[in-house]
Amino acid sequence: MPRIKTLVLILAGGAGGRLELLTHTRAKPAVPFAGTHRLIDFPLSNCFNAQIDDVWVSQQFNPVSLSDHLANGRPWDLDRTSGGLLVLHPRQGNEAGTGFQEGTGEALWSQADLIREFAPDALVVVSADAVYKLDYRAVAEEHCESGKAVTMVTTEVDPDDADRYGVVQVKGDKVTEYVYKPDEAKGNLISNEVFVFTPEPVLAVLDELVEEKGQDDLQDLGHFLLPRLTDAGEVRAHRFEDYWRDVGTIPAFHAAHMELLGDEPPIDLDDPGWPVLTRAIANRASARIGKGAQIDCAIVAPGATVAGAVTRSVLGRGAIVERGATVEDSVLLPGAIVRAGATVRNAIIDDHVDVRANVGEHGGDIALVGLHAVVEDDLPSGARFPQVDDD
Question: What pLDDT, in 10s, does the model give residues 202-249?
Fold first, then answer.
């Protein structure tokens, strides 16, 4: 079979409101993960390992934090003279489909002219808030052989979480029903936000929806586009049974890090057969473990310094745990500091937060401390920005 022309579009423009303080000053795909990586590293590394050379990233909220990390695509071998990485910015112009988008449906439609000009055989559209490894090229080839307009990658989730996603019913590999964020989910098989489209029929349906509803009412792909294509019998499922974790909420973000600390981590970021690549940070030496430090089950990134006690925790680049400080079941993002006398339990500490003495566990919820704070009292687990719905 001749190699198909594949384009990957990473929708990286959401406000990320469910991650609260972590996305107040950074794009959701730029949120640090596992001490050394960022969330967008997962789809970009999937492209690298699948040998896909044409990757577009659609930005919107807090784009500088993401653009800095992308580094022209070099870490993923996408800094090419022809093709490679293309960053799509919101734009204003004289034509419809320009400016800021109100959902992933509008985000896709706003790039319709560019997609048609590029003319891929398969358009892979993904989000950037999940941790997983997937061969996009293999799914795209399977899609093209099917003759359908859409292939959606499906996976099973905890039944209590299914109503956060598009819930699907299947017969064989045919999707017979798709309901986006239902009030009551009929099962726990969901679309995990990886889609392969045959561009022209899908863009034609988007054009019809714009005529009917207007550009501003396209909302997310799951609101109108996918249900219509499902009703037309044009959607098939690709079942994904490996590890997939949506980390778009604070509890899920914390849980994913705790999973990495298990005896058998569900995903290997350093697998030579499928590495998860990231932009290297210059001038970071190896982590330093001080005399008398106590470390039990931890991930410690380069540049971090540990002189205190760390248990079941992830420490990002440059994080510091001073002598006499205790960190348990927590995630310290790059540059976070826990001073002597402070005890941090069951918490996510944002980058460059300075946690001082006499700080201890706060209730049973995950404490989230951000915005470069200096914390001198109990961890303020309730001090969070209001959630927004345009995630």
Answer: 999 999 999 998 777 788 999 999 999 999 999 999 999 999 999 988
DSSP-derived secondary structure for 73-99: GGGGT---SSSEEEEE-----SSSS-S
Domain at 6-260, CATH from 3.90.550.10, 3.65.10.10, 3.10.129.10, 3.10.20.440 = 3.90.550.10
pLDDT tens-digit profile of 158-192? 999 999 999 999 999 999 999 999 999 999 999 99
Which of 390, 351, 269, 301 lies closest to 31, judged by CA? 351
Q: Are 348 and 368 in contact (CB under 8 A)?
A: yes
Which residue in 86, 85, 129, 137 sits closest to 104, CA to CA?
129
pTM: 0.90
Fold for the domain defined by 288-375: UDP N-Acetylglucosamine Acyltransferase; domain 1 (2.160.10)
Residue 208: which residues within 8 A CB-CB, separation 6 or more?
none
Residue span(s) of the chain under CATH 3.90.550.10 come to 6-260
Range scoring the smallest mean pLDDT among 60-69, 294-303, 322-331, 355-364: 355-364
What's the CA gap between 33 and 41, in Å, rounded? Answer: 9
Cα 166 to Cα 164: distance, rounded to the nearest angstrom: 7
Here the tokens at position 272 are: 């030579």
Residues of the chain with CATH 2.160.10.10: 288-375
Grouping H, G, I as helix, E, B as strand and the rest as coil, residue 215 is: helix
**Rounded CA separation 151/141 (Å):** 11
